Amino acid sequence: MKYAVIGAGGTGGPIGGFLARAGKDVTMIARGRHLFAMQKDGLKFEGAAGSFTVPVKACTMEDYADIPDVIFVCVKGYSLADTIPFLRKTAGPHTVVVPILNIYGTGKRLQKELPGIPVTDGCIYIAAEIKEPGTILMSGTIFRVVYGLRRETPEEEKTRLDLVLKAVERDLKEAGILPVYSSQIERDALQKFSFVSPMAAVGACYDVTASKMQEDGAMRDLFTALVREIRILSEAMGAAIPEDIVTVNLNIMDDLAPSATASMQRDIRDGRPSEIDGLVYEVVRMGQEYGVELPAYREIAGQLRDRMAGK
User: Fold this and answer.
1) For residue 12, is pLDDT > 90?
2) Is the pTM of this model over 0.85?
């Protein structure tokens, strides 16, 4: 199995780095100072799993000249369009594309741009970010990659791709990553979204860390209300997430470092492009599409729009 990982940040960095450490054939696709640092000194990891450095193959999109079996797409939602020409050029007749983004439904949207190239859906459970060029800081021990084929995938396509996706499962496991090869990826990806979207929305709107959502009060209540609305939306979408999702997500929240924040919140704070459209505004649009009232999301989306407009 030959892997390419587009994006070497808090998602792609650990996926590619851990696979490389396990001896898998991986090339990291990156740019700028982070790429230069990886090429010079390898990819460094710090955090709960210990500190170590992994020698990695790394290059730009323009310099990559191989044909991989699997391409992990691990960029921010606003950069997804930039990967499409590379994917069209690089994918071979047996290549599978596995998007691992915070935004729900990325695989389905990407598949429309890549006819003839199989695209799964996927998500990740991890707390990691670039600490400095060439270094990934992992704030927790959870590292789970969830991926699978959508319901509309033809059965003959599922049969053909099953061998590759099971090989991915084996390689991830050997790399120390918990793989979930899902038969209900719409539900499982929406379940992850039901955590990251509310956390990002509350954190960005009120400029608070996880600590405020870990203690009883208005921020925890708002986080809970947003999770409940995603649960209601999931039923209307025919991909119902567990009924106890509020309890599940509160437990995840309580296990975070009190200082933890979502990447969307950090990007907005630092004046960088953010995933606010896909993580917050898109939920309101999905509510309208499926005829579901989402008052908490409408309110927080309105506040964020005003804030982003400088009102």
Assistant:
1) yes
2) yes
